[in-house]
Design goal:
This is Aldo/keto reductase. There is one protein chain. The chain is of the alpha/beta class and about 400 residues long. The chain has 2 domains: about 290 residues, NADP-dependent oxidoreductase domain (TIM Barrel, Alpha-Beta Barrel), CATH 3.20.20.100; about 90 residues, no CATH class. It contains 16 helices and 12 strands. The strands form 3 sheets. The chain has an 8-stranded parallel β-barrel with strand order 3-6-7-8-9-10-11-12, surrounded by 7 helices. Helix 7 links the parallel strand 10 and strand 11. The longest helix has 30 residues. It is globular and about 70 Å long. Bound molecules: iron/sulfur cluster (2 copies). The site of one iron/sulfur cluster has 15 residues, from helix 14 and helix 15.
Length: about 400
């Protein structure tokens, strides 16, 4: 595993970090056996930076990591990064209360890398007013926070303001070959590095969209390259090509992904991509930009919606419909899942009432209600509505008939 040194502290960090938000699940819970196998393999192979947060896996991620490290006796072998959910902070006491719970869940007395989660300019000012600098100063002095940082989804000007507002050791930005000019972007990456901050990169595969279900016209470009790599490997190598990047976080979902990412991390050195390789990536970038409808990363910060819309799923199916080769498959998946055919729970785009609550939470600044109207126009058509009505009626009727048959059987 390659390592990079944190400028302000001398910590030696692996270039690949483990994002603890996409573990395999069973019935909505982290599959602890599979996730433990993945973590154990990763740590054994040098991936000893684990990035978690309160909302990951609907609140299960921190306690899973804590249990795993305690059971395996690995706490001292890894760097834990976790984050303060600023949206849950209403007063100064909330900050300490949340932090104490995180220490308890993670079964540790200290956090190696503590971030203010998903800042924008506005949320930074709110936290500043509530005394976050004093909290960080005190906890750093006590040793319970070893390095202070923030993750960021706002615009570049606000990013620079936050970089300048506190003596941070590090920051975390969204960065991949589609986001060079989005949020902090390349300008922010260079700015932070020049200011002496380590830079962790999140979403190197843009929520997995750059790794799987690749449209044919994009695969053709990848295949035209002289060297053959998977789309995920191309995307990761592009990020590591930047010398300013310290650690790339990958939210891995299978042991195969862990092995593949470790293999790539071994020799993805800074400035190692050739001119030809960069041209291939540029062509892929242009092609994606032509076809992507909504720049949603699936972070789910906009959720829950009071009207029940599953916003990221709507955008995921909508993007898949327009970007990937089997578009109709995505459309009918959407109809089955979001029209409540299987479980009666509706979450489709046309439920949106336009209240606008989600817009404020979106780090990608997507005009969610407006874009949901487009989704509804393509997907919630008279045909799909009629289909879901009939299918739902049929399944309900079938359920009722089978209940009656069961009762009859019991009576006999
Ligand atoms: S604007 Fe629409 S999608 Fe957003 S929170 Fe309100 S109802 Fe839900
Ligand atoms: S719409 Fe915005 S907040 Fe919601 S999942 Fe997508 S990127 Fe995240």
């Amino acid at each position: 595993m390659q390592h990079r040194i944190i400028p302000k502290t001398g910590d030696k960090l692996p270039v690949l970090g483990f994002g603890a938000m996409r573990f395999p699940e069973t019935a909505g819970r982290i599959d602890r056996a599979k996730a433990s196998e993945m973590l154990a393999y990763a740590i054994e192979n040098g991936v000893n930076y684990i990035d978690t947060a309160v909302p990951y896996h609907k609140g299960q991620s921190e306690s899973f990591i804590g249990d795993f490290l305690e059971k395996e006796g690995l706490r001292d072998k890894v760097f834990i990064a976790t984050k303060l959910p600023h949206w849950s902070v209403r007063n100064p006491d909330d900050i300490s209360r949340i932090f104490e719970k995180q220490l308890k869940d993670l079964k540790t007395g200290y956090i190696d890398y503590y971030l203010l989660h998903s800042l924008s300019g506005e949320s930074w000012h709110n936290l500043d007013d509530l005394g976050i600098k004093k909290f960080l100063d005190l906890e750093k002095a006590s040793g319970r926070i070893r390095n202070a940082g923030f993750s960021f989804h706002g615009d570049i000007e606000s990013f620079k303001d936050v970089v300048n507002a506190y003596p941070w050791e590090f920051c975390q930005i969204q960065y991949n070959f589609l986001d060079e000019k989005n949020q902090a972007g390349t300008e922010g990456l260079k700015y932070a590095a020049k200011s002496g901050l380590a830079v962790m990169v999140m979403e190197p595969l843009r929520g997995g969209n750059l790794a799987g279900n690749i449209p044919e016209n994009i695969m053709d470009i990848w295949k035209s390259a002289k060297v053959h790599r998977t789309p995920a490997e191309w995307a990761l190598r592009w990020v590591w090509n930047h010398p300013e990047v310290t650690t790339v976080l990958s939210g891995m979902s299978s042991i195969d992904q862990v092995k593949e990412n470790i293999r790539v991390a071994e020799d993805a050195f800074p400035a190692s991509l050739s001119e030809d390789e960069l041209i291939v990536i540029g062509k892929v970038r242009d092609k994606y930009k032509e076809t992507m409808k909504v720049g949603c990363t699936g972070c789910r910060y906009c959720m829950p919606c009071p009207a029940g819309v599953d916003i990221p799923s709507c955008f995921e199916y909508y993007n898949s419909y327009h970007m990937f080769k089997n578009g109709n498959w995505a459309k009918w998946q959407y109809v089955f899942r979001s029209h409540g055919i299987m479980d009666g729970k509706k979450s489709h785009a046309s439920l949106c009432t336009g209240c606008g609550r989600c817009k404020k939470a979106c780090p990608q600044h997507i005009d969610i209600p407006l874009r949901l109207k487009e989704v509804a126009k393509d997907f919630d058509t008279p045909v799909t509505k009629a289909f879901s009505g009939i299918a739902g009626f049929y399944l309900t009727l079938r359920g009722k008939i089978s209940e009656v048959l069961k009762i009859k059987k019991k009576v006999r």
